[in-house]
Amino acid sequence: QVYLVERGGGLVQPGGSLRLSCATSGINFRIHPLDWYRQAPGEQRVLVARITMQGTADYADFVKGRFTISRDNARSTVYLQMNSLNAEDTAVYYCHVKRQGTDFWGQGTQVTVSS
User: Fold this and answer.
1) Average pLDDT of 22-51?
2) Facing residues of 79 across strands?
3) N or C: more exposed end of the chain, with fewer CB within 10 A?
4) C-beta atoms surrounding 102 within 10 Å
């Protein structure tokens, strides 16, 4: 069984920071790219960041310079450090991996940016 469990969401004021984590099981963590997506109410789920097995990171334009994705292979965990948060970052954030052609998603963690 593949399990992805996100943690770290919550309520934060504009300009604040949060760090999300995604603990994985049931995959060979080191050989798969890991992704963070987000979905706001009534909108499409969009890719936020991706980290490859080599550790190369790619980001959506709307988070470049503010978010950092990283992975800890020893803990099979991927992180998303989010700084300079604004209201448009409010969404449910999901961890994602594709294994043997199948997409797997975590349960999501809510991030709300509001004063």
Assistant:
1) 93
2) 21, 70
3) N
4) 8
In terms of Cα–Cα distance, which of 53, 13, 32, 41 is closest to 108?
41
Identify the CA nearest to 75 among candidates 35, 38, 14, 21. Answer: 21
Distance in angstroms (rounded) separating the CA atoms of residues 43 and 58: 22
The torsion defined by the Cα of 43, 86, 113 and 52, in degrees rounded to 10, comes to 70
pLDDT digits (tens, 9 = 90+) for 40-81: 999 999 999 999 988 899 999 999 999 999 999 899 999 999
Is residue 69 a contact partner of residue 38, using CB atoms and an 8 Å limit? no
Coil, strand or helix at 45: coil
| pLDDT tens sequence across 11-23 | 999 999 999 999 9
